[in-house]
């Protein structure tokens, strides 16, 4: 499969494939694309295995359009919609491996309900501490 057309709508990137399918995924997974100008998004190259944006140094594989999770949910959505939350610092504070939290965020692994609560509680605790800051 290769793309014959690429476009963006509603925080999603769409492709039309050479076999006539329309596939999409959230651009929340690609912060450089999310933050790119319309001109930068339009300056792509269709390559053998994916799409490349030279100016913003971003690549999206065709294969990724067929993943089971085109839209981030749960912990993944929280961190991808709030990039100001430092995932590495949250992981250190929780005492878990940064790479594990990164896999949760990318949707490669799903945290248990208990782990999800722990992550949310840690983020909320940080928020409470920040809201109590006085100058």
Explain briefly what this protein structure is.
With 135 residues, this protein is α+β, with helices and mostly antiparallel strands.
Structure characterization notes:
With 135 residues, the protein is an alpha+beta fold. The chain folds into 2 domains: 3-66, NE0471 N-terminal domain-like; 74-131. The chain contains 6 helices and 6 strands, in the order βββααβββαααα. The strands form 2 sheets. It has a 3-stranded antiparallel β-sheet, with no helix packed on it. A 3-stranded antiparallel β-sheet has the order 4-5-6, with no helix packed on it. α4 crosses α5 (98-106) and α4 (87-94) packs across α6. The N and C termini lie far apart (57 Å).
What do we call the CATH homologous superfamily of the largest domain?
A: Uncharacterised protein PF10387, DUF2442
With strands numbered from the N-terminus, the spatial order across the biggest sheet is 1-2-3
- Count helical runs: 6
Instruction: Tell me the Rg in angstroms.
Output: 17 Å
**Outline type:** elongated
Strand content: 15-25%
Written as H for each helix and E for each strand, in order along the chain, the element string is EEEHHEEEHHHH
Poorly predicted regions: none
CATH structural fold name of the largest domain: NE0471 N-terminal domain-like
Summed up, the domain count is 2
Counted beta strands: 6
Share of helix, binned: 40-55%
Main structural class: alpha+beta
Mean pLDDT: 94
User: Quick one: CATH class of the largest domain?
Assistant: Alpha Beta
Under the CATH scheme, which architecture of the largest domain would be assigned? 2-Layer Sandwich
Q: How would you describe the oligomerization state of the chains in this entry?
A: single chain
- Major beta-sheet overview: 3 strands, antiparallel
Termini separation (Å)?
57 Å
